[in-house]
Amino acid sequence: MTTEAQLEAQFADTIEAKDRIEPRDWMPEAYRKTLIRQVAQHAHSEIIGMQPEGNWITRAPSLRRKAILLAKVQDEAGHGLYLYSAAETLGASRNELTEKLIAGKQKYSSIFNYPTLSYTDVGTIGWLVDGAAICNQVPLCRTSFGPYGRAMIRVCKEESFHQRQGYELLMTMMRGTDEQREMVQESVNRFWWPALMMFGPPDDDSPNTAQSMEWGIKTHTNDELRQKFVDMSIPQAEALGVTFPDENLKWNEERGHYDFSTPDWDEFWSVVKGNGPCNDQRIAHRKRAWDEGAWVREAALAFAEQSAEAAAPAQTGSAPGQTGSSPATTTEETAK
Ligand code: BYC
């Protein structure tokens, strides 16, 4: 018989060898709990993240831009679903997690509590927000929990497409009028600091990093990834012809990195605690969509139950398709 100590040793060996932990494997309860916390927050971010850009679908400046934006927002829904599925393998259902989000018991990324004031913000979100997301998520492709890492591989492919889409939109505007160039700069000024905050608090104020690194859930610290993002964004801004709102941005020869100012961490914590410009609006919208979609979930469940019954002839004594009423008919009846 395998003892608890042997299971713990097997788990430690798997982490040490940088192999994957799979849902069927034994894992410490604290590992499961922290993964559910992170994966759920990540899933919620993808779903809530549909709102700021979704706000511009009806007002996109051309049919082509509208089609691109629709597809991008739809991709985010898909990312949310892969992630809820990954959380489900840990024993946390999508219903339960969504209820917690709506009740304010789980978080989502601070970035989505800022408004999108002009269509230009669609480009800036693609470039900077999806850019920051890629920087954070590429290392997560090698995270220790199998379903999370595999979801990340697919998500990252789509995110890099999103980032190029945003950059191309801004490039087009920069080739336009002075007014359009000013709109791009104004939008970049508003999103730069919130994008840096996406990486989480500084390492010395990040309670979860040390343990998550030990477990191979995170492979880089918040500050390491923030620095990487700053270093990669500056040449992109130069090519675009915009600046970032930080007079201390300077190449540091000795460190081999750009120096930058400290983000306003009071603002970050205030947004995380629910006091950002759009927190109430985002949750109210999510709650409305969840409540209004209840009948769809009920109907889908009833349909699945009816289909399962119809496909189980041994229990009913009749062959498939001979249950008297089609699943579609009974679903309609149940939905009433
Ligand atoms: N916002 O100990 P720490 C997207 C919380 S969506 C809010 O460093 P950890 C996209 C943190 O949860 C991309 N809260 O935590 C979608 C913790 O509180 P709890 C979303 C934050 O987990 C649509 C406390 O602060 N990406 O790309 O080690 C359109 C202390 O933090 C934030 C992910 O979710 C924040 N920014 O590290 C476009 C990536 N930062 O939970 C784009 C996956 C920290 O103890 N997640 N907190 O109550 C991660 O990599 C990590 O969870 C974090 C935080 C780096 C975010």
From TrEMBL:
* Alphabetical GO biological process terms: phenylacetate catabolic process
One Pfam family for this entry, by name?
A: PaaA_PaaC
The entry's cellular-component GO terms read: cytosol
Task: From the UniProt entry, list the residue stretches annotated as the region Disordered.
Answer: 305-336
Q: Where is the composition biased (Polar residues)?
A: 322-336
Q: What are the Low complexity biased-composition ranges?
A: 305-321
Q: Name one GO molecular function term.
A: phenylacetyl-CoA 1,2-epoxidase activity
What the entry lists under InterPro entries is as follows: Aromatic_CoA_ox/epox (IPR052703), Ferritin-like (IPR012347), Ferritin-like_SF (IPR009078), PaaA (IPR011881), PaaA_PaaC (IPR007814)
Q: PANTHER family annotated for this entry? A: 1,2-PHENYLACETYL-COA EPOXIDASE, SUBUNIT A, PHENYLACETIC ACID DEGRADATION PROTEIN PAA
Protein name, UniProt field: 1,2-phenylacetyl-CoA epoxidase subunit A
**Biological source species:** Brevibacterium casei
Q: By which gene is this protein encoded? A: paaA
